[in-house]
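Severity: low
Component: inverse-folding endpoint
Summary: output formatting inconsistent between runs
Steps to reproduce: submit the following structure tokens with default settings.
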């Protein structure tokens, strides 16, 4: 325990964020780190519990509690407090290959399971993690790590999202030759094109990719396996194949007028915005338009923040479920994930620009209304009553809202069928790849959202690590991972 009285002496202090009206002027990361002394004080707040729930990642009540990577949080927290960031970095990298990603986009499952947060505020674990990994980069401590002895085994990883990158990183360190296939023009999967730049600046991905390339990983972009290259070619060339192709099949909305020009899937909208930004231009798709975001999750919030930055005329976010309570309910005890209402950065920004929270609860789309040219001009919504346990339309609650862009952020349905079909892999009723552990059969393995369904970056990384271990054991008869 770094400082036994730290949690009593210091109040929680997060990395500072630029004011909403200032940060919406660009698409840059708007968080600024604390100075070293303040960050060490934040690390001193860790109580070093005898049973640290923060690192005990497991499903409780159907929800993940604590870190799925089992990060050694009390250990590197103490080292950070004592001014030993090099040792803190060593302990962090023992369990997490990509802290630069998780410290930016993870919802901090560790903090929700922090005992200090039961009667006070939790430790700033995510911000502490970010300080440690950025110290590593700034001081040249993040380097490629590859086994000098090469095994002669070749592995194909299909998909370069967090699970694919984690598997490739682990297996290349082991001495295997790894090739990652990515259908998009850049590496990263949803890290690159599903998460907006203000949450994860894309050079953060690029610098990690460069290190992995130095480590010997080969990346083949703009290569859609099952279309541009056949599964048979992959099987003939490689000793093992890992399907880490994500759960990228979006859930649609079956309402009249769905074919109107202006109705888009959220992930396509976010991807186009990032591509425009990377080309050196300023994204303006929503400029001067009324935007309706359908879905209340993280992707929906990202769409709100993106539309505001693009200069939309208005933005409304439809949430089909009732508003969550502001505090934990009695049937949602610690250390379960707290099912409480949170206001995220995009909603804060919309409120600052337009004067009110953009969310409308218990509401869904009844019709997309087109103009004479087939373009979207309005959306008809209807309220839902959940008193019976399922949503029932409330008669007479229809409302028509002006709208030129409607973004469907209703989640994902699982793995795209053509990838599974190409390799003869079976899909479950929920479109997840079926397997024994991570092994589908023969030389074929799977990891990430394609395996467990739509989830978090941190869980996808854990999936990649575990899959790499199984693939290594398959190839070598034992594993050192």
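Observed output (run 2 of 3):
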């Amino acid at each position: 325990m770094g400082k036994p009285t730290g949690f009593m002496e210091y109040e929680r202090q997060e990395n500072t964020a630029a004011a909403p009206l200032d940060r919406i002027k660009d698409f840059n990361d708007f968080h600024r780190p604390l100075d070293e002394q303040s960050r060490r004080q934040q690390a001193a707040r860790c109580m070093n519990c005898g049973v640290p729930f923060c690192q005990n990642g497991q499903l409780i009540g159907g929800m993940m509690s604590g870190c799925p990577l089992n990060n050694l949080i009390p250990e590197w927290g103490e080292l950070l407090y004592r001014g030993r960031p090099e040792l803190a970095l060593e302990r962090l990298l023992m369990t997490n290959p990509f802290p630069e990603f998780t410290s930016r986009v993870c919802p901090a499952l560790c903090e929700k399971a922090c005992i200090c947060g039961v009667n006070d505020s939790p430790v700033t674990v995510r911000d502490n993690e970010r300080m440690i990994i950025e110290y590593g980069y700034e001081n040249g401590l993040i380097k490629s790590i590859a086994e000098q002895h090469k095994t002669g085994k070749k592995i194909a990883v299909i998909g370069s999202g967090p699970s694919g990158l984690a598997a490739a990183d682990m297996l290349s360190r082991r001495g295997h030759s790894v090739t990652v296939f990515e259908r998009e023009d850049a590496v990263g999967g949803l890290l690159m094109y599903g998460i907006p730049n203000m949450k994860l600046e894309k050079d953060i991905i690029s610098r990690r990719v460069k290190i992995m390339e130095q480590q010997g990983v080969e990346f083949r972009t703009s290569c859609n396996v099952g279309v541009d290259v056949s599964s048979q070619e992959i099987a003939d060339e490689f000793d093992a194949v890992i399907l880490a192709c994500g759960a990228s099949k979006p859930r649609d909305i079956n309402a009249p007028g769905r074919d109107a020009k202006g109705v888009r899937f959220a992930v396509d909208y976010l991807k186009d915005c990032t591509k425009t930004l990377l080309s050196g231009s300023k994204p303006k798709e929503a400029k001067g338009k009324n935007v309706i975001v359908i879905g209340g999750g993280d992707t929906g919030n990202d769409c709100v923040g993106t539309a505001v930055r693009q200069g939309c005329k208005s933005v409304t976010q439809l949430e089909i479920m009732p508003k969550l309570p502001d505090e934990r309910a009695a049937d949602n005890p610690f250390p379960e994930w707290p099912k409480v209402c949170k206001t995220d950065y995009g909603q804060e920004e919309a409120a600052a620009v337009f004067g009110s929270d953009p969310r409308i609860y218990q509401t869904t789309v009844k019709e997309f209304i087109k103009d004479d040219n087939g373009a979207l001009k309005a959306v008809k919504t209807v309220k839902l009553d959940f008193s019976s346990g399922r949503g029932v339309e409330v008669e007479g609650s229809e409302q028509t809202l002006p709208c030129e862009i409607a973004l469907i952020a209703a989640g994902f349905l699982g793995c795209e069928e053509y990838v599974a079909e190409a390799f003869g892999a079976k899909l479950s009723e929920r479109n997840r790849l079926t397997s024994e552990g991570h092994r589908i059969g023969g030389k074929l393995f799977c990891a990430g959202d394609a395996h467990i369904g739509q989830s978090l970056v941190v869980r996808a990384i854990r999936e990649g690590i575990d899959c790499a271990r199984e693939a290594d054991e398959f190839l070598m008869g034992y594993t050192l991972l």
